[in-house]
Amino acid sequence: MKTTIMHVGALALSLLASSVMAAVSPEEAAKLGTSLTPLGGEKAGNADGSIPEWTGGLQPGAAPVDANGFLGNPYESDKPLFTITKANVDQYKDKLTPGQLAMFQRYPQTYKIPVYPTRRSAAAPQAIYDAAKKSAVTTESINDGNGLKNFEQSHYYPFPIPKNGVEVVWNHEARYRGSNYTQVVAQATPQANGSYTIVEFRQDLGFPQAMPDVSLEKGANFLMYVKQEIVAPARLAGNVTLVHETLDQIKEPRLAWAYNAGQRRVRRAPQVAYDGPGTAADGMRTADNADMYNGAPDRYDWKLIGKQEMYVPYNSYKLWSPKVKYADILKPGHIDQDLARYELHRVWVVEGTVKPDERHIYAKRRFFVDEDTWAIVEADHYDGRGQLWRVGEGHQVLDYQQGASTYAAQALYDLIAGRYAVTGMTNEAKRSTQYGQKFSMNDFTPAALRNAGIR
Asked: Could you report how far apart the first and last alpha carbons of the chain are, in Å?
């Protein structure tokens, strides 16, 4: 009997340890920067060389930067290796997502995928690599994966060597985005005939670790602070949203406020989360469609399906160029695919299924996450009937001056309505994203929200 009790006790301790020890061992973390890239991708290329070895990625000065700060295309001389169309799609379907295949069915005459040579451009500052390595051995998941513990010590990439699906999702949400910044971005939701109105936002992003008046203790449960003001069209201008994004949203839900310019009032905005409507998006996206996915992961059970080689949007500098106008991008049904660039990359595949006691308009969603940057580059969204409903494509670029992954544009296609939303375009902004902003908490309070919205 004493032996049995000892065995039960040992088992209990083992189970307890496994529930709290999400961090990897120092020996496993040592792979970062050796057999793995510093952020956790496979350093080696694939067997046939179509995915090359990672050798450090793009560095500052990789291409000319214009007078307004817009980055040039370091791969401008590249030509497509081939183009996938409805006529030849069956040859490549094993490397395409269900959403991409559905786009060929929905738009057989116009949707295409131009495939370019694979360039492993991903790079980040050494301090970010050091932070990822620290995260690997210190960060733990809590509340069934819905929060992070000890993450404030590193701030980025909590699980560079992930063991389950929710850890991959966290890497996307907590990836490096550069220092505090201000940018002007455009959104459009074209009708089926291609007509659209541009909605322009000015947005400020502040990170607690880069704000001197936010202590380590005070910022421990915060990922970022976001203030977003509509600046055009005139009928919407002056409306402002403020979000304090928390890490453990079970313990402390996302805090959000909205300032309505017409009423001149600041109100709490709990709808700015989950499947609440995206701002000024004509019902074409949800709040958690922003940045391809954002917010608490608690409404889904996340399954790690594994890694696959797939043709995904990558190095989309042509689409990002200030020489391209919004009218060049926005076409009936989908963006102009001649401006897009796809490459063969390894991606983590993660599937989220709504928990039985939760609700969301997307009953299931599947993410395809770039191994080198942890950015979601493709996303399939299914309705309650199990039907593929919306297809997301994140046209990723590396801001090589900052060493930060970002998007030239994010497109979300509604297969049923025949419409789509595009967010994050900066082509016609007067200047590029301004990094290094000296924000304080005073810039992210409800009072600041009111001041920003005064016209």
From this structure: 78
